[in-house]
Amino acid sequence: MAIIGGGFTGAALAANLARNTAGRAVDIVVFEPRARLGAGLAYDTADPAHRINVPAARMSLIPDDPDDFLRWLAAEGEPRDDPGALAEDGNLYPRRAVFGRYVSDFIAPHLKADQVHHCRERVGQIVRIGNQWRVNTDGGTDILADIAIVATTHPAPCAPQNIAKVLAGHPRYVADSTLRGALSVIRGDDRVLVIGNGLTAADVIASLRCCGHRGPITAISRRGLRSRGHATTAQEPFGDFVTDPPQTARSLLRRVRIALHQAPAEGRSWHAVFDALRTQGGDIWRALPVAERKRLVRHLRPYWDVHRFRVAPQIDAVIAEGLEHGDVRVLGGSIGGIDHDGETIAAEVRHRHSGKREQMLFDACVITTGPAHTGILRSQNWLADLADAGHLQLDMVGLGLACDEQSRATNRDGKSEETLFIAGPLARGTFGELMGLPQVNDHAIFVADQVAQRLARRSRSRAAAKTA
């Protein structure tokens, strides 16, 4: 079995596959160029401002043992040298690098037992050879896999073309802030323009302030929405959206509004309603026709994102302080035009609600528009090869790769590829809620179960054939 991508999804998948296939003659190879499995783009960071966005008590890799991560933290003496990890509400929000170590330790016993093999090379090509998949890497590794699983990361953000064209080559134009050290080009007093306003933008603002940046920061997005913080007290999810599930985006929105209106009388905030939507997300999504899924994504996704994907209290406090003092601005609007005179960037900002046009000057520009999922098939050569050969296609909603209810890739003809699976967030066009870590972990377990069941069926078929 070849798993392409060894970040959180790939590592969780490999560990569960190793557990499910223990005692069988199965080779699990994870292709990941990073030194450790489990860190990936999200957790392979040394930035002290980068924290997990979910309380540590909800980050266990073992669904039946919710305290596993907390016990690991205690055993490792973590979080050490990080007094800011403990939020005022009593929850721990360790740095992401710490969680990456936890995931690496989770899979380590399977590596030691040779159940899982880590190939520290980048995949260059995957080709179908008969009933197998030939995987070639840039380091010269060449294997034939009976089953291939796409567990790759999100594609890089895609800057608006007019901005990318004008600012290409500018010394403080940061096209991808997720790259290690990307923000180091920004000086302490620089006026910074941030394009986008989600979780990545929050990270950028917190990182800059953590490194001593003092200059003004302006974050702009079409609606001017920013990611919200967590509830100050623990709440149970509130709302039932799966009994007689909504069949349209409009009816779902109506039901959510009713729940939001009723929640305060039950002592709950909006957080509890969105937590219910999150836990029921898969069933809600499956009940919606494709046309309504598209409508939901087109019109309501920005509002979902800022309520669903919450920032850690420590990061929220940094942004709130900046908003209060006026050195951080969050604007709704668009960039009407952009140019630069030497290293000074001149941008025309068109405000969303007033229609006012404002000329603003900046010294740096950071793109945080989020992953360009519609370009995933061209983001890596091996994905492009699989797409050109007809084995992969984009899902109909535009959130990732098309797959069936067993998470098998759907090919160009609309048929399921029996031995090619999609794991993690790139499968959310089919499964809906697949961005939060608990949901991604559950999906990795699900895919591992699907693959193990397939292997068991094949073993029984071979045994029956021998008996016959």
Characterize this entry briefly:
By secondary structure, the protein is an alpha/beta fold. It has 14 helices and 16 strands.
How would you characterize the overall build of this protein?
This protein is an alpha/beta fold. It contains 14 helices and 16 strands. The strands form three sheets. It has a seven-stranded mixed beta sheet. The protein has a six-stranded mixed beta sheet with strand order 3-2-1-7-16-15. Strands 4-5-6 form a three-stranded antiparallel beta sheet. Helix 1 (8-20) runs parallel beside helix 14. The mean pLDDT is 93.
Order of secondary-structure elements: EHEHHHEEEEEHEEHEHHHHHEEEEHEEHH
**Would you identify the regions where 5 or more consecutive residues have pLDDT less than 50?**
none
Largest sheet: 7 strands, mixed
**Share of helix, binned:** 25-40%
Radius of gyration: 23 Å
Q: What is the number of beta strands?
A: 16
Strand content: 15-25%
Strand order, sheet with most strands: 8-14-9-10-11-12-13
Tally of helical segments: 14
Distance between the termini: 28 Å
Could you say which overall geometry the principal axes of the C-alpha atoms support?
Answer: globular
The average pLDDT score comes to: 93
Structural class, judged by helices and strands? Answer: alpha/beta
Oligomeric grouping of the chains: single chain
